[in-house]
Each structure stands twice: as structure tokens, then as C-alpha cells.
């Protein structure tokens, strides 16, 4: 695998529709670019423990742990979606702001509880990174750096586009926040689906 391929995987991961992107959308609509840009670093903050656990767990844990993670992740997504839905009018009207740190913690938790991140590292990026690392540690580190540079840049671009909606009327911000909450709920149901 080349650095360009790793960067391509990072960019596609940033732009692929999912629960994290739906959460980004809600936060960007509510906060605008200034309040949402730190969320672009969610994968950097969340993936270290995911990668370490996945590489350790390969071949050690039964497949049932992924099923358990799927249910916990789905429940957490539903909880976040419900909170977004309920808080949408108050936040759109300039009410209570839970703070960027809390939103960042929620984004990191969404990533930690998403089994797709573990599957991706176990099957797509983990094996080439380990192979490159065995040949030359700098090559393995380069693949990881290229992946995270691209995923952060892609996430920042996505947040910038989403933040354009922050200038809309309060009514539209409520609607868009609730749309993102509904999408998160849909992703939670898909995550909980067996198979």
C-alpha cells in the first residue's frame, strides 16, 4: 500500500455517510465553523485505543464481542439522537450550549462504539500498516500519518460545508438538526440489525 492509497482511504472514510458525519452536521448547523472545527480531530483522538485494541484482539476474542459492541453503539447513538432532537429548538434559539469539549467527547464516544472502525482497522488498514512496519517502521508510520492527515482534512472540509447552514433562520436550524438526529437514529437501527 502506498501513502496515496492510505490518504485515499482516509478521505473516503471522512466523506462516507455515517453516524459521525450526521453528528458533525448537527454540530456545524448549531455552532457554525468556529464552534465545530475541533470535531475534525475526532478520529485522531478516538482511534488510538481502537487501533491498539483491534490489533491486540485479532484472533483472540470471539466474534460475539463485535455483536455486543454493535448493540452498545446503537443504544448510544439513539441516546445522542434523542438529545439532539429534544435540544434542537433551544439551541437554534441561542439557548444552552453544552460546550465544544462535551461535543468532542460525544463524537469520540460515537467512534469508540462504532464496530465499523474496528472492522476497518482489522481488515483494511491494519494488515498493510503492520506489514509496512515490519519492513520499515517509518513506512508504517507514514501510512498512518497519510490516513489521518486525509481524514482530518476531509472532516474539516465537511464541517466547513455543513457550517454554511448555521446562517439560516432558527426554524431551518431546528429542522436540519432534527434531520441529523433522525439520520443518527436510522444509523443506530442499521447498526443494531443482525448480520
Write structural notes for this entry.
There is one protein chain. This protein is mainly alpha-helical and 195 residues long. It has one domain (3-192). Helices cover 82% and strands 0% of the residues. The chain is built from eight helices and no strands. Helix 3 packs parallel to helix 5. The longest helix has 29 residues, at 64-92. It is globular. The mean pLDDT is 82.
Short note summarizing the structure:
This protein is mainly α and 195 residues long. The chain is built from eight helices and no strands. It is globular and about 55 Å long.
Task: Provide the low-confidence segments as ranges.
Answer: none
The gyration radius over C-alpha positions equals 17 Å
How many angstroms does the end-to-end distance come to? 29 Å
Largest sheet: none
What layout of secondary structure does this protein have?
Blueprint lengths: L2 H13 L3 H18 L5 H16 L6 H29 L7 H13 L2 H21 L1 H27 L6 H23 L3
Helix pairs in contact: 1-7, 2-4, 2-5, 2-7, 2-8, 3-5, 3-6, 4-5, 4-8, 6-7
State the main characteristics.
195 residues, mainly alpha
